[in-house]
Amino acid sequence: MDSLHAIGFYVSSALSVTGALLVALLPGRGARGAALGLTGVGLAGIYLFLSAGFAAAVALVCYAACAWLVAGPTYRSLDYVVRPPWRQLSAIGAAGMLAGLVYSAFRGDFVHTTFYGGWFNSAAVGRLLFAHDAIATEAVAALIVVALVGATVAWRGRGPSR
Amino acid sequence: MARAGAKPVSADLVPVLFVAAAMVAIGAFVAGWRRDLTAAIGSVPLLLGGAGVALVGVARFAASGGPQLVGQEFAVVLAVVSLALVALGVGIAGREGSR
Questions:
Q1: How many domains does chain A fold into?
Q2: Structural domain boundaries, residue A45
Q3: Which of A17, A141, B34, B53 has a beta carbon 3.0–4.6 Å from B39's, enabling a disulfide?
Q4: Does domain B13-96 have CATH number 3.30.460?
Q5: What is the DSSP secondary structure assignment for residue B5, as one 8-state letter?
Q6: Which A residues, 6 through 65, put their C-beta within 8 Å of a C-beta on chain B?
């Protein structure tokens, strides 16, 4: 990886992690949606500088849609009761998980191989999705259709009282 | 002008895995910390995005013994799945919750 790509990767990483932190900390759905969009831009940049242009394009569209869903007019709050010790325990658990993952990444002994793909790779990824792993792709597509039909039913099921 | 003997900026698999770990941990933090269930759903793209970064990094730097782009393929699927899960979660919350 040359210097330009490495700098782009680090800048995109900073954007992505900053956006994720803002999703965690900001109040208000509009600000959280914007932060999720920032995370998507950073994630697409990471993919792009790792020679995964097609994945970057898909991620950008999907995260923009996620941001619109979170910030949009269909959003409703759904509070649930969790006592503060459990929330603090979950925060400590997330910190412990971060420490464990960083340690394993730092101490890991990884194979280094040469990358022969191009920067966009849409044809190669398409061949994998629709020829090499066609059954898995169909299964994921069926799950996504079920999820979207469920979302539509849930939206429409609230009735005329809205 | 670059200083003579300066090391070029570079990145390999380890920084990629650091970023992936940070995103997954922040996603787990959001899932546990938020009181609003719909806001906690915002953790799903972070968790799956972190996994996608790790997969793309492995495909870029350390894939051997099979198709090199399988990690990119999974990252595409994870992005689409995260959108579907957020849509489902916001839809269910829209049925049960209040503005």
A1: 2
A2: 3-120
A3: B34
A4: no
A5: T
A6: 6-7, 9-10, 13, 16-17, 20-21, 23-24, 29, 32, 36, 39-40, 43, 46-47, 50-52, 54-55, 58-59, 62-63, 65
